[in-house]
Structures are given as structure tokens and as C-alpha cells.
Write a structure and sequence with these properties.
CATH class: Alpha Beta
CATH topology: Rossmann fold
Order of helices and strands: HEHEHEEHHEEEHEHEHE
CATH superfamily: Thiamin diphosphate (ThDP)-binding fold, Pyr/PP domains
Structural class: alpha/beta
Strand content: 15-25%
Largest sheet: 6 strands, parallel
Helix content: 25-40%
Strand order of the largest sheet: 2-1-4-5-9-8
Number of strands: 10
Number of domains: 1
CATH architecture: 3-Layer(aba) Sandwich
Number of helices: 8
Distance between the termini: 40 Å
């Protein structure tokens, strides 16, 4: 199937379906594109640490589950926007996520088959099926979206959920994020501190 969906359009479609979910976004252009579409204190834009969006999301999801367990309420969901290059850099996170089984984690791989932020060099996702890797790792729900995004399926599924979102290579012409790293960090922490991590059933 010919892919005809730019990453920025995929991001826009997905965040349009989000509400109280916390978002961790991969470094480089994915974060810049998300910021350009809609800035939100619920979004954590990674400006470094390639490959660790999935690990950060896992830690946050587990923390929320622990908090929700004390109150008996539904845990707030964590959505991670990652890239194929970053997933391939940290394949161990797939195993760890599967082993920890966070029911509130959705890991989205924006698969453009290249390292979009460093010159669009090809990644091995051209040769290796990332959704198959997630299934072998033990993810109970694996979804693949090509052109049509049915993200409601991911939101309604018990996690961990792995989503392979196939998008065109290339980046949108967007400016850099005009927030200091400390500001991104502290406002996200403040959002977590001040808001409920567990939602009423």
C-alpha cells in the first residue's frame, strides 16, 4: 500500500482524539511539529536522549498506576509518540514494557523509515517489521495504521498498546520550540502534581 500521510497530519489527527492523556513526544521534528499544531502543558517535548521516549513513558505510566491503585480509580493514560529510529535504538524498552504490563500505556511509532531529524537516512524499519517485533515482545494489542487512523481502538484497548503509524518521510517546515528545557520539564511536572493521575470511574 502506498503511504500518503505526513507525520504532522498524523499527529494532528491523533491529538484531536486526546483529552486527559499525558503525552511524551520523541526528540527533534516530531516534538517541533506537535508544538506547532498545539502546545499543551500535558505534553512533554523531548529535546535530547534519543531512544528514551518509550522508557520515560513507561516510568510515568507505572507511577500513575501505583497512584490509581491507592484510590481505586481509573489510571490516566500515557501516550508516547516515538520514531522508528528511536525504537530500533532502544529495543529493550519493548521487552521491559511488555514485562511490566502497564495497562495505561500507548506507544505510537511514527514510522517514516528514516532518521528524519538528522538528514532522513534510512532506518532498518525498511527491512524489519516493527509491529511483528512488538507482538514477539509480548504486547497484547498491536495496531497498524496506514493512511486511515482509527485511534479510538488504541484508547479503548487495555495496554500496553503498540501502534505502528506509517507516515511519509520528511519533516514539516516548523520552527524550533521556543521554550527552555527547564520550562518544559517544570510545567509538565506541575501538571502532574496539580491534576488527578486517577480519573473517576
Amino acid at each position: 500500500m502506498v503511504i500518503d500521510l505526513d507525520r504532522i497530519k498524523a499527529l494532528a489527527q491523533i491529538i484531536d482524539e486526546l483529552d486527559e492523556e499525558l503525552v511524551i513526544c520523541n526528540i527533534g521534528f516530531p516534538s517541533r511539529e506537535l508544538y506547532q499544531i498545539q502546545d499543551n502543558v500535558k505534553y512533554f517535548y523531548m529535546l535530547g536522549s534519543m531512544g528514551l521516549a518509550s522508557s520515560i513513558g513507561l516510568g510515568l505510566a507505572i507511577s500513575i498506576l501505583n497512584e490509581a491503585g491507592k484510590s481505586g480509580e481509573n489510571p490516566r493514560k500515557v501516550v508516547v509518540f516515538d520514531g522508528d529510529g528511536s525504537i530500533l535504538m532502544n529495543l529493550g524498552s519493548l521487552i521491559t514494557i511488555s514485562a511490566q504490563k502497564p495497562s495505561n500505556l500507548i506507544l505510537i511509532t511514527l514510522d517514516n523509515k528514516c532518521y528524519g531529524s538528522t538528514g532522513c537516512q534510512s532506518t532498518y524499519s525498511e527491512k524489519v517489521n516493527l509491529s511483528d517485533l512488538a507482538r514477539v515482545a509480548g504486547f497484547p494489542t498491536v495496531l497498524v495504521f496506514e493512511e486511515k487512523i482509527e485511534f479510538k481502538k488504541a484508547l479503548e484497548s487495555k495496554g500496553p498498546v503498540f501502534v505502528q503509524m506509517k507516515v511519509n518521510p520528511g519533516n514539516a517546515d516548523v520552527p524550533i520550540i521556543d521554550l527552555e528545557p527547564e520550562e518544559i520539564k517544570y510545567r509538565f511536572m506541575q501538571e502532574i502534581k496539580n491534576s488527578k493521575l486517577a480519573l473517576k470511574k
